[in-house]
């Protein structure tokens, strides 16, 4: 692991330790493998919060953080430790089949985590006698309950222990505090999201050259994902939406198997992941390279909402206010076009909110609304959010003129909130209607 990445994960452990305090202990479980069919597993993906704190990509691992220190046996002597990573033991046979394991002896050198032991020693931590020394325990409950294989047996004992010690200490899920940390990105993270966005926009610009009538949706998906991989994208950020015609009105359409026809729109919602960090882009193109009058009316309304909301982004602006602004622009645009008789009906056609945070998860696992006295709605420098207004008109909307039916438009960009305003990380992907038509002219 490179020094900048070690420093990043170390800073995350330090920040989380400061949040939970010296009287607390955190037990954060990494992911385990899952069976797909017969003797094949799904591709392994590390839990994102565990990755955030460690950068470690092997299964069956557990991180323990004790800011006030814990006594733990090391080479026959009791030592005070503040961070421990439990990992799989070295196993020559298993490594022949499934790849090299780091082993506990190389954890400090490779990951920068102070202390490490093999998994067999985890029960020394996850027992009532040990845990009673603290006033508060943090763990990742939802993820913990999904663990498999040998780790599942450890979890069964742990959950029984939690039932016994619950009256003696406060037990909390770590996800909320980690979400608050993840909401504000460091420069290291911003660079990773920027890399993902650059790979994604390059893929769109290249793939746009191949959009034409007669091409199947899955061919467009394949072109995008080839570009991601070829240019260093580790994975897709989410299952892609490549939706032509009325498919664009299905928000999470993912069959991606229809032949595109002239006169339709193609909505693409797809993006690359880079070093576990995601980008998220949506663009809408005319399949034959030319918007119809009706398509262009809808497209320009959505584009205006996208651009005006981006202009407003800066620290202190509320996410909810951006959502309200988008709704206002979409409403006024449809009303002016004669497509909306009652302005209260806008949600029938806009369906979703203006956006979300983005980072280790595409819909990043961070709080972003105001709840009680806690304000996570107000944007801060270091937030990275999407702006993605959309309008959708299905074929059975009889109140809409026929030529406007089966039109779905969404335009999405990834925006970094800076100290003085914002930066559009996906700005290099064209979205002006005239620019799109020029780019597709020779397709």
Your description of this structure?
With 443 residues, the protein is of the alpha+beta class. The protein folds into two domains: 178 residues, Creatine Amidinohydrolase, Chain A, domain 1; 256 residues, Creatinase/methionine aminopeptidase superfamily (Creatine Amidinohydrolase, Alpha-Beta Complex), CATH 3.90.230. 35% of the residues lie in helices and 21% in strands. The protein is built from 14 helices and 21 strands. Strands 6-5-4-1-7-8 form a six-stranded mixed β-sheet. Helix 1 crosses helix 2. The protein is elongated and about 80 Å long. The model has no long low-confidence stretch (mean pLDDT 96).
Q: What is the CATH topology assignment of the largest domain? A: Creatine Amidinohydrolase
CATH-level-4 superfamily name of the largest domain: Creatinase/methionine aminopeptidase superfamily
Figure out the total of helices.
14
Strand content: 15-25%
User: What's the domain count?
Assistant: 2
Kindly report the average pLDDT value. 96
- What would you call the shape? elongated
The proportion of residues forming helix, as a percent range, comes to: 25-40%
Structural class: alpha+beta
* Quantity of strands, as a count: 21
Q: N-to-C terminal Cα separation, in Å?
A: 44 Å
Sketch the major β-sheet: 6 strands, mixed
CATH architecture of the largest domain: Alpha-Beta Complex
Low-pLDDT sequence parts: none
| Highest CATH level, the class of the largest domain | Alpha Beta
Rg = 25 Å
Which strands sit side by side, in order, in the main sheet? 6-5-4-1-7-8
């Amino acid at each position: 692991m490179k020094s900048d990445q070690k420093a990043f994960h170390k800073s995350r452990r330090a920040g989380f330790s400061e949040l939970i305090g010296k009287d607390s202990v955190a037990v954060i479980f990494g992911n385990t493998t899952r069976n797909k069919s017969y003797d094949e597993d799904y591709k392994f993906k590390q839990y994102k919060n565990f990755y955030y704190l460690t950068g470690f990509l092997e299964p069956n691992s557990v991180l323990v953080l004790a800011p006030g220190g814990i006594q733990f046996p090391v080479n026959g002597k009791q030592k005070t430790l503040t961070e421990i990573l439990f990992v799989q033991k070295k196993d020559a046979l298993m490594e022949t089949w499934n790849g090299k394991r780091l082993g506990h002896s190389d954890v400090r050198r490779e990951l920068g985590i102070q202390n490490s032991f093999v998994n067999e020693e985890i029960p020394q931590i996850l027992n009532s006698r040990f845990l009673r020394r603290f006033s508060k325990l943090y763990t990742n409950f939802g993820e913990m309950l999904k663990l498999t294989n040998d780790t599942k047996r450890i979890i069964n004992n742990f959950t029984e222990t939690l039932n016994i010690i619950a009256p003696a200490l406060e037990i909390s899920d770590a996800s909320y505090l980690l979400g608050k940390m993840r909401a504000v990105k460091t420069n290291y993270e911003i660079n990773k999201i920027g890399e993902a966005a650059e790979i994604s926009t390059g893929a769109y610009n290249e793939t746009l050259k191949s959009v034409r009538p007669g091409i199947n949706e899955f061919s467009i998906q394949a072109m995008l994902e080839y570009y991601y991989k070829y240019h260093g994208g580790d994975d897709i950020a989410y299952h892609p939406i490549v939706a032509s015609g009325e498919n664009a009105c299905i928000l999470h359409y993912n069959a991606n198997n229809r032949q595109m026809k002239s006169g339709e729109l193609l909505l693409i919602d797809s993006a690359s992941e880079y070093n576990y960090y995601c980008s998220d882009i949506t663009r809408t193109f005319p399949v034959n390279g030319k918007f119809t009058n009706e398509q262009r009316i809808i497209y320009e309304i959505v584009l205006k909402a996208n651009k005006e909301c981006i202009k407003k982004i800066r620290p202190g602006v509320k996410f909810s206010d951006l959502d309200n602004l988008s709704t206002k622009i979409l409403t006024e645009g449809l009303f002016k076009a004669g497509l909306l008789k009652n302005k209260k009906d806008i949600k029938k056609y806009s369906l979703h909110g203006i956006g979300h945070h983005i980072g280790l998860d595409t819909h990043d696992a961070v709080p972003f609304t105001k709840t009680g006295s806690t304000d996570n709605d107000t944007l801060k420098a270091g937030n990275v959010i999407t702006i993605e207004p959309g309008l959708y008109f299905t074929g059975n909307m009889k109140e809409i003129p026929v030529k406007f039916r089966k039109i779905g438009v969404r335009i999405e960009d990834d925006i970094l909130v800076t100290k003085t305003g914002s930066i559009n990380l996906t700005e290099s992907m064209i979205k002006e209607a005239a620019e799109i038509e020029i780019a597709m002219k020779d397709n």
